[in-house]
Amino acid sequence: MIPGPTNVPDRVMQAMLTPTINHRGPEFHELYKEIQSNAQKVFQTSDEIVVISGSGTAGVDAAVGSILQPGDTAIVPSYGEFSSRLGDSARYTGANVIAPEADLGSVPNLEDIEKAFQTAGRVKALCVAFNETSTGVTWRRLKELKEIASKNGALFVVDAVSVLGGENIPVQKLGIDICIVASQKCLAAPPGGVILSFGQEAKKAMAQVKPRNQYFDIPKYFKFAEHAETPATPSLPIFFALDEALKIILEEGLEKRFTRHEICADAFYAAFESLGLRAFTAKEFRSHTVIGIKYPPGIKDEEFRALLDKKFGVLVAGGFGKLKGIMFRVGSMGMINSTLVTVTLDAISQSLRYCGYQSKPEQALQAAWNILKALDQ
Ligand SMILES: Cc1ncc(COP(=O)(O)O)c(C=O)c1O
């Protein structure tokens, strides 16, 4: 139950046992075309899809590296570990990065983003991490952020690594120029693959940028995609897994999947509140995929999580960096369902009790069930 890698359906694991095929042959061509077409449906866009063998960071590096170069300026708001890593990826390109900040557990003010544009001169891109996995905060202001970017002639890049497939992100409707998701989060596949969408404006911009290395030369991916291939050898097991994972998502239906994530997240938050625990962020920014909860006084992070793991077989994540010992994070992604929610809640509330916190597991379960019953309707 960590915020990725998350649980993977058997169908996806089985798909990875498919015998190795020629990555320049007809079977791969069919596979890649199917992944691209199903990914477009999951991204809700007709933009071009690129699949790269690599982790989420590879996707982020590929995205910013394709449009930024020395001399460019990017605005990359920072409100946690992954939004600041997005800024770091932009800095690696040699671009000047302006990073309006917000306190951990919060999101930047839109006025601060506007101000950053006013003082920055020409800005090539606004890059945001929609779901800040390190704090459990989702910046539900994509529409407004896109408007600010457009008004200033900047591209809009969204790191949706830990949320696409778990919350509605209509990429085309929102005008996201580059969007990135990783396999091991809400797509419920193992780690090792990233999917990116590139809109027309992003493609135009990258034509003016000299790729800094061969692996992340995105125009080369477009060229190879004309024959349904990737420039370098793809990680075939991950491609088989992604293909199956995307099919499962579409079989369920996007709307149903987003609702399932929201209901399970609401059940977690309500149950934790019933135990007297507090979410790490305000209600409107609470993530539907990463449940960030503050520790009550006296609970030691390592002791609690070790107990949870050893006694109950449930893994959750601790806080990142400065938040170590302050909060824990539950991944509520991909396959999340009422069984996983209630087993996790029972284990957490019992572990808290072992650690000396006055916790009533039955109260948490009741609060969760009051919400989870909506899943059956
Ligand atoms: C929002 C976000 N961006 C980027 C990354 C980096 O992904 P990876 O660790 O797969 O390289 C993560 C990882 O958790 C993430 O949550």
Model description:
With 377 residues, the chain is α/β, with parallel strands linked by helices. It is 44% helix and 13% strand. Strand 7, helix 7 and strand 8 form a beta-alpha-beta unit. Helix 3 packs across helix 4 and helix 12 crosses helix 13. Bound molecules: pyridoxal-5'-phosphate (PLP). Pyridoxal-5'-phosphate (PLP) binds next to helix 3.
Spell out which ligands are present: pyridoxal-5'-phosphate
Helix content: 40-55%
CATH topology of the largest domain: Aspartate Aminotransferase, domain 2
SSE sequence, one letter per element: HHEHEHEHEEEHEHEEHHHHEHEEHH
**Biggest beta sheet attributes:** 7 strands, mixed
Could you list the spans in which at least 5 consecutive residues all have pLDDT below 50? none
Integer count of domains: 2
What are the defining features of this structure?
seven-stranded mixed β-sheet; binds pyridoxal-5'-phosphate; 13% strand; Aspartate Aminotransferase, domain 1; three-stranded antiparallel β-sheet; alpha/beta; 2 domains; 377 residues; 14 helices; single chain; Aspartate Aminotransferase, domain 2
Topology:
Layout: H1 10-15, H2 26-43, E1 48-53, H3 56-67, E2 73-75, H4 81-92, E3 96-98, H5 110-120, E4 125-129, E5 131-132, E6 137-138, H6 142-151, E7 155-159, H7 171-174, E8 178-182, E9 193-198, H8 200-206, H9 218-225, H10 236-252, H11 254-274, E10 290-294, H12 301-312, E11 317-318, E12 327-331, H13 338-354, H14 361-372
Parallel strand pairs: 2-3, 2-4, 4-7, 7-8
Antiparallel strand pairs: 1-9, 5-6, 8-9, 10-12, 11-12
